[in-house]
């Protein structure tokens, strides 16, 4: 399972950044145009709001649950979440659990 989670993490990084890279190549780096485009297209707005809400929920969850269980390095969650996204943190948790369970050899 750990390899599956790592593969999902790479795919979850590659596909969105490939699409974003294509947009940047076509339109150039224009934050104003990006925000305007998002607000003009309801499906894009839906997707971005979903990502933002999910990121905030993950950061809050990781902080609260990390305090409860005494998780070290709770500070890593917000930067990972903001730089790469939710899937990175979730994948790291599952890969850690799988490696602790000895599933790397399976």
Mean of the pLDDT scores? 79
Radius of gyration: 17 Å
Shape: globular
Low-confidence stretches: none
What is the number of strand segments?
A: 0
Structural class by secondary-structure content: mainly alpha
Q: Indicate the percent of residues in helices.
A: over 70%
Q: With helices defined by DSSP (H or I, 4 residues minimum), what is the helix count?
A: 5
| H and E order | HHHHH
N-to-C CA distance: 8 Å
**Biggest sheet features:** none
Count of spatially separate domains: 1
Beta-strand proportion: under 5%
Topology:
Layout lengths: L1 H26 L3 H10 L1 H28 L7 H7 L2 H15 L6
Helix pairs in contact: 1-5, 2-3, 3-4, 4-5
Written account of the structure:
The chain is an all-alpha fold. It has one domain (2-99). 81% of the residues lie in helices and 0% in strands. It has 5 helices and no strands. It has helices at 2-27, 31-40, 42-69, 77-83, 86-100. Helix 2 (31-40) crosses helix 3 (42-69). The longest helix is centred in the middle third of the chain and has 28 residues, at 42-69. The N and C termini lie close together (8 Å). The model has no long low-confidence stretch (mean pLDDT 79).
